[in-house]
Design goal:
single chain, about 250 residues, alpha/beta, Rossmann fold, four-stranded parallel sheet, three-stranded mixed sheet, 11 helices
């Protein structure tokens, strides 16, 4: 089945939209197929503001209606306690909220941007998708990430070269309870590094109060040369800052 075939069979679709490469292309493809499509973005404490900004900008350029709704994922103990299956519990709550919004707007098909490269054994959220009946047309049509990037560039989508992004909760080691303050520290540190010109990065919490910066190999020299700037930006929130010499 091709993506075009999927949209011929499903003319009204709601898209779980993260503003990443995959869900952005899915939204574009639905619009190009002249579907009645609406994007839904759930803003939780796990998404930095820049992802919401990208979602608003992308949907606006595409001319697709976007619903943004807030969800306090930390009110769920199975999320806040940060157990090994945190992602499953978090995804379940997000998808339940998405389904509620989509059905209220008259949609009975909800899609997400999972692609054919996604390994179900490494993605706890896949279990939640399956249990809640969310469709993954990119995956079902055999589209891998590289092809989605190529098609996105061909369509002149600004997301075509956007680095893959994992939520802020992944910066906190499993078993360490997640708090709003910890998430704010991580987001602030990453934003500071983005503002310095770094990209495709992670700032991971090293309990109890340390930070480990992970960068692509091409940016390690720049990190060394900007050591003082990095320490000045991060030390107010972390009592130790280290650079991972294993590149992302």
């Amino acid at each position: 089945m091709s993506l075009q075939d999927f949209f011929k069979r499903n003319k009204r679709v709601a898209v779980a939209f993260s503003s990443g490469v995959d869900s952005s292309y899915l939204l574009y493809a639905a619009k190009a197929a002249k579907c009645d499509v609406r994007a839904y973005f759930i803003k939780s404490q796990f998404q930095p503001r820049r992802e919401l900004n990208d979602a608003i900008r992308f949907a606006g350029r595409l001319g697709v209606s976007l619903t943004v709704d807030a969800l306090n994922v930390l009110e769920y103990p199975d999320v806040a306690k940060n157990p090994p299956d945190r992602c499953y519990h978090c995804k379940t709550q997000i998808l339940k909220r998405l389904w509620g919004l989509a059905r209220a707007d008259g949609f009975d098909v909800l899609c997400d941007g999972s692609n054919a490269d996604d390994d179900e054994s490494d993605r706890q959220g896949t279990r939640a998708l399956r249990e809640l009946g969310v469709m993954s047309p990119l995956k079902d049509c055999g589209l891998i990430k590289a092809e989605i990037r190529r098609l996105s560039k061909q369509a002149d989508l600004f997301t075509h070269d956007k680095p893959s992004y994992a939520c802020l909760a992944t910066r906190i080691p499993t078993g360490t309870p997640i708090t709003v303050r910890l998430l704010e520290k991580v987001e602030s540190a990453e934003e500071a590094l983005f503002d310095m010109g770094f990209s495709d990065l992670r700032v991971r919490l090293v309990p109890p109060k340390g930070a480990k910066i992970q960068l692509p190999d091409s940016q390690l020299d720049m990190a060394a040369s900007r050591r003082a700037d990095i320490l000045a930006a991060l030390q107010p929130d972390f009592n130790s800052v280290v650079l991972d010499l294993e590149p992302r």
